[in-house]
Design brief:
Layout lengths: L7 H12 L5 H10 L10 E3 L6 E5 L4 E9 L2 E12 L2 E9 L6 H15 L7 E3 L13 E8 L5 E11 L2 E9 L4 H10 L1 E2 L1
Antiparallel strand pairs: 1-2, 2-10, 3-4, 4-5, 5-9, 6-7, 7-8, 8-9
Helix pairs in contact: 1-2
C-alpha cells in the first residue's frame, strides 16, 4: 500500500459517519474508505473471496472483514472484501441466508439499504446485470444511484445484488463520481467458479 491519502482525515470522518449508519451496504462503503491508499493508477487483479465461490476483478488489494448484521429479519454473518482506489470504494459483500425463501427479501434489503445510506435522490437507473453462474432471481438487479453522504457531500453509487444458492451478494462502487467504464469492468468481471 502507498502513503496515506492527502484526504486521510476526510476518509476517517466518512468512516465514522458510515459506521453509524445501517448495515450491510454501509459496511462495504465504510471499510473501503478506511482502507484508502493513494495509488498512481488502478492495479486490476482477480480476487476469489474465501467461502464465496465467486471471482471478481478489483482495482486494488482488498482487505476482508466479517461481521454479524441484521438482514431481512435475521442475523447473518456478512463477509466483506473492499478497497479504495482512484477516489472510489469497491466492495463485494456476501452472506448465507440459509433458506431459499429468504433470498428475495434479503436482496431487496441489500438494495434498499444502499439507497437509504446515501439518501438517494431518485429510485435509481436500472443497468444490465449478468453474473455467470448466479441463481436467477427477480430481485437480482444492478442500479445507478446518486445521493448525499451525511456530511452533505454528493456521491454516486452503482450497486448490484444477486444470489448463488442461498448466498446473497452485494457488489458496490461508491465515489464522488463513478466512471461507467471502470464500473463496467468491475461488474462484468463477477462470476462464479
Amino acid at each position: 500500500m502507498g502513503q496515506p491519502c492527502g484526504g486521510a482525515r476526510i476518509v476517517r470522518q466518512r468512516l465514522r459517519i458510515i459506521a453509524a449508519m445501517t448495515p450491510p451496504v454501509v459496511l462495504a462503503a465504510g471499510l473501503g474508505l478506511a482502507l484508502c491508499a493513494c495509488t498512481p493508477a488502478l492495479d486490476w487483479r482477480e480476487v476469489r473471496p474465501a467461502g464465496s465461490g465467486a471471482s471478481v476483478l478489483l482495482p486494488c488489494r482488498p482487505n476482508g472483514q466479517e461481521r454479524r448484521v441484521p438482514l431481512a429479519g435475521q442475523a447473518v454473518q456478512l463477509t466483506l472484501y473492499a478497497c479504495s482506489a482512484n477516489g472510489q470504494t469497491w466492495g463485494l459483500a456476501f452472506a448465507d441466508v440459509a433458506d431459499p425463501a429468504r433470498l428475495g427479501a434479503a436482496l431487496e434489503a441489500l438494495r434498499g439499504a444502499a439507497a437509504a445510506n446515501i439518501r438517494a435522490v431518485a429510485p435509481g437507473q436500472a443497468l444490465a446485470l449478468a453474473v455467470p453462474g448466479a441463481t436467477p432471481h427477480a430481485a437480482a438487479v444492478r442500479t445507478r444511484l446518486a445521493g448525499l453522504l451525511p456530511t452533505g457531500e454528493a456521491v454516486q453509487m452503482q450497486v448490484a445484488v444477486f444470489a448463488r444458492g442461498t448466498r446473497v451478494f452485494q457488489a458496490t462502487v461508491l465515489g464522488a463520481a463513478v466512471a461507467d467504464e471502470l464500473a463496467e469492468t468491475y461488474f462484468s468481471s463477477i462470476r462464479f467458479v
